[in-house]
Write a structure and sequence with these properties.
The strands form two sheets. This protein has a six-stranded antiparallel beta sheet with strand order 6-4-3-2-1-8, with helices on one face. A two-stranded antiparallel sheet has the order 5-7. It is globular and about 40 Å long. It contains two helices and eight strands. The protein is α+β, with helices and mostly antiparallel strands. It is 17% helix and 31% strand. It has helices at residues 10-22, 88-97; strands at residues 25-29, 37-43, 47-55, 58-65, 79-80, 82-86, 111-112, 127-130. The chain has one domain (10-100, 107-130). Helix 1 (10-22) runs parallel beside helix 2.
Length: 137
């Protein structure tokens, strides 16, 4: 799912490969060759991990909590329990190192989600979805 208009690097390839191996589902929002944003999602059941990629240096990863009375919108989340922003490689590494939701050290306190996770309905037009394989690394 690496956009063709991005300069290729082994680190970029490895970050996308790590997301694929972890089982993330990818949402390519916009033209596949030059998307507005790539949103990758892993559903744990009670939590959802999201990686929002707007460029090689504009990436936000977050863990979102599913509340019983609140539906989680992966394109406009209202709250998060953890997030990290930065370049692609360290951001992907950070979320993949995050303990599983059932681990005692995992974050659970909710706070307002970063605005950098918001994807407008206009940006979502012409979406391509590539389902992930189950089984987190």
């Amino acid at each position: 799912m690496i956009p063709v208009n991005w300069p290729y690097s082994p680190e970029t390839y490895e970050a996308f490969t790590a997301m694929d191996r972890a089982g993330f589902t990818h949402y390519c929002c916009g033209d596949r060759r030059a998307p507005h944003v790539l949103v990758s999602v892993y559903d744990w059941g009670d939590y959802i991990d999201v990686i929002n990629v707007r460029g090689a240096d504009r990436v936000t990863a977050a863990r979102l909590s599913k509340c019983e009375d609140d539906l989680v919108d992966i394109f406009a989340p209202s709250h998060a329990v953890w997030h990290y922003m930065g370049a692609l490689e360290p951001t992907v590494a950070a979320i993949l190192r995050l303990p599983a939701p059932d681990h005692p050290d995992t974050p659970t306190t909710t706070y307002p989600a970063p605005l950098s996770l918001f994807v407008t309905s206009r940006e979502r037009r012409h979406m391509i979805v590539r389902p992930g394989k189950r089984g987190r690394c």
